[in-house]
Design a protein that fits this description.
The chain is an alpha+beta fold. It contains 9 helices and 6 strands. The chain has one domain.
Length: 224
């Protein structure tokens, strides 16, 4: 019975490997088609060195053995974008785990102060309970739904004004956003379908389009 059991195990392992490979090829084909539809350039690997170039961003700087792949980039509505899949590893030995996510870097062209905004989770609520508060807004619903931190509280209030908060609350899917200078990262720690890439980017485009003109001028003039 033992040789038969070994053969069955090998067949199962081979089947899993084949299914994984076919799924990977299907995903690559779908993302390459999305890149072509948008007129973006496609690369199976990472021509930008994302794991080093953008490691200051929280989602990129975590763990070790970091690597971006399935990278496609171009311009959309006047903004330069880099879309990608990403993986990193935490722990070692038997406690080692590999994590996968998708994301998009967007060059919005404004010198933003540092700001991070994400759907509020359990650990954010715990941190708030022990005194590590995020920024509270006039909208209690928005403050409850989103965790927002910034080096410049005025900027946070100007960016998330009443209409912007209503817009964010109306989104059926919410993502994490991190702004550093003229570049931002949007992600949600999961691997996106082509439709989710479109949803995430459109959500940010809508938020940026709602920026008040006085905020644009203040950022450009450095008077914020």
């Amino acid at each position: 019975m033992q040789p038969f059991f070994v053969i069955i195990v090998l067949i199962v392992i081979a089947g899993i490997a084949i299914c994984s490979y076919l799924s990977s090829q299907r995903r690559k084909k779908e993302l390459a088609a999305l890149a072509a539809a948008w007129g973006f350039s496609w690369d199976d690997g990472d021509p930008f060195g994302i794991e080093h170039r953008y490691e200051a961003f929280h989602a990129i700087g975590r763990g070790h053995s970091r690597r971006a792949y399935h990278v496609f980039h171009g311009n959309r509505k006047g903004r330069a974008m880099v879309c990608f899949d990403y993986r990193y590893t935490t722990g070692s030995g038997k406690s080692q785990s590999t994590h996968h996510l998708s994301g998009t870097f967007i060059r919005h062209g404004y010198p933003f102060p540092y700001l991070t905004a994400r759907p509020e989770g359990f650990f954010d609520k715990v941190a708030e309970f022990v005194g590590f508060d995020d920024i509270d807004f006039e909208s209690a619903e928005f403050s409850k739904a989103f965790y927002v931190k910034s080096d410049n509280r005025k900027f946070a209030f100007d960016l998330f004004h009443a209409r912007a908060m209503e817009y964010m609350l109306a989104q059926p899917q919410r993502f994490a956003m991190e702004f550093r200078g003229d570049t931002m990262l949007i992600t949600d720690d999961s691997t996106w379908s082509p439709k989710e890439f479109e949803t995430a980017i459109a959500q940010v485009e809508g938020l940026l389009d709602l920026m008040p003109e006085y905020l644009r001028r203040s950022l450009q003039e450095g008077t914020l």
